[in-house]
Write a structure and sequence with these properties.
mainly alpha, 3 domains, 57% helix, elongated, CB, DNA-binding, Core-binding (CB) domain-containing protein, DNA_brk_join_enz
């Protein structure tokens, strides 16, 4: 029972708690005393423990989703936490500092500069990590001041993907028997992508055994 509740107990209940404290040579045990009288603070959640708590606290965000949709929703959040822990460590939430977040940002800055990744990839990791920690902080009423703001990267100019040439389409996609190496389901999916613009992952939900 936390201290703010212990102090509201009737005097008899409070005396029972005091008498229950173990002692040696008439000296109360400080560890037992802290636990029984409510002055011992509960252990802080680590980042990975916060992620486990997050799945339950944010359960409403997956209502109506299929198992595959839930998996795709969970994976980027798992990745963001995994990346953070690999750089900073699995720290208790209340011990995360501004320097920790800047170190994580520097990790992403280096990947953008040398690894060919985009600012968008980095920002997604920062957003997902922040979402997890902020949700747990709010829903568990932890009242922690998390240093999560002002870390986003500025998006550069987005390069346009050049379209396939008419000649390539005629010789590759529309050539006689061009798709005969695919089975019927795969051909249908490819033609559906061409005609509707849906993504391969969306098609895979309907026919997972084909991928």
């Amino acid at each position: 029972m936390p201290l703010d509740q212990v102090v509201k107990l009737p005097i008899n209940s409070l005396l029972e708690r005091i008498e229950a404290i173990a002692n040696r040579n008439q000296t109360p045990d400080p560890v037992d005393a802290a636990a029984v009288l409510g002055t011992k603070k509960p252990p802080a959640l680590t980042v990975t423990q916060a992620l486990e708590a997050y799945w339950t606290l944010a359960k409403d965000r997956t209502f109506g989703k299929s198992d595959d949709q839930k998996r795709r929703w969970e994976n980027p959040r798992k990745k963001a936490v995994r990346n953070f822990v690999s750089i900073v460590g699995d720290k208790p939430m209340n011990e995360i500092t501004a320097d920790d977040m800047l170190e994580f940002r520097s990790y992403w800055q280096e990947r953008i500069e040398t690894g060919g990744l985009t600012a968008n990839s980095a920002n997604k990791d920062l957003i997902h990590l922040g979402e997890v920690l902020k949700t747990v902080n709010k829903m568990k009423r932890l009242g922690q001041d998390l240093p999560l703001d002002g870390l986003a990267f500025k998006d550069g100019e987005k390069s346009e993907r050049p379209p396939f040439s008419d000649d390539w389409i005629r010789k590759k996609l529309l050539a006689p028997d061009a798709l005969m190496s695919l089975n019927a389901e795969a051909r249908a999916i490819l033609l559906g992508m061409i005609n509707t613009g849906y993504r391969p992952s969306e098609a895979a939900c309907a026919a997972p055994d084909q991928f």
